[in-house]
Here is the input.
Amino acid sequence: MLPPRISPENPSLFPRRLPAWIVSARAETAEDAAFLAGAALSALQLVLAQPDVPHALVRERRALGAAEASVIRAGRLERAANLRDEVHLLRPGDQTGPAGAVFALWRQAVAKPISVGTLYAVLPEIAPTDIATWLDAGQGAPVARACAVFEAVTVAHPRAEDAALILADAVLARAMGANTIMPLLGAHFTARDLRKAGADLRLAGYAAVRKAAAETLTLSQDLRDRAAKLRAIAPKLRAKRTAAAVDLFLTRDAVSPSLALTGPEVGMSDRAARRLCDRLVKLSVVRELSGRDTFRLYGL
Here is the structure.
């Protein structure tokens, strides 16, 4: 009997995690590593093609992972929860600390379609002509091209590791036919990987992409399910400006009721925002992310 056809009309048939032979297989050669990374990317691309995946939210969550990896490489103590607080509890006119600035950088990088202009707005220290050259540089498969660009950027800008990773992930995305950055290399390169070059760097890239693809695939399916529940319950909510609030939950990693929901994008009163978040938690469609009684953050 033929296997059921996988299509957007039957999304339950999409893989929820990478097969064990991709995740657990030991790459004995560079060819093995390249093949396994390619298989992981192929499965991830299939899942990300689903129209009901909340793509902007997935990218924000992966941006958080890339930012956390960056501060770990820098030897800092902040982790994902701290980065969330710095960015999502930031009041107008205030500035983040160094760690929060890294998360803000990655959020900005994944927010808009890839172009020389959008990348220069994120990375003003890199000349637009250089960005254009690197976006079109490299030959061969996506991971090899991305690693070549990462190496070129770090040679030209030795201290701009996050910029090099953002540009590498942009090249990787473009090579796969995507028009927005999905942080993969940025989320899994270690401090030791950053010092590698040539064939060793490509091997590190293959390993990082395989891990990142596995995480991103599972995350995408989880958020797709959560988004579907929120969309289903949204018409039953009677609070004013609910539609705008739902849109925010579907695109942001975390939402502060006293800041995001009362801001110009939604315009709720503080009381209405808090009541809405409490109700969404009771309906099990939104989670409280901070674990605090005050200054709470909510998200899918």
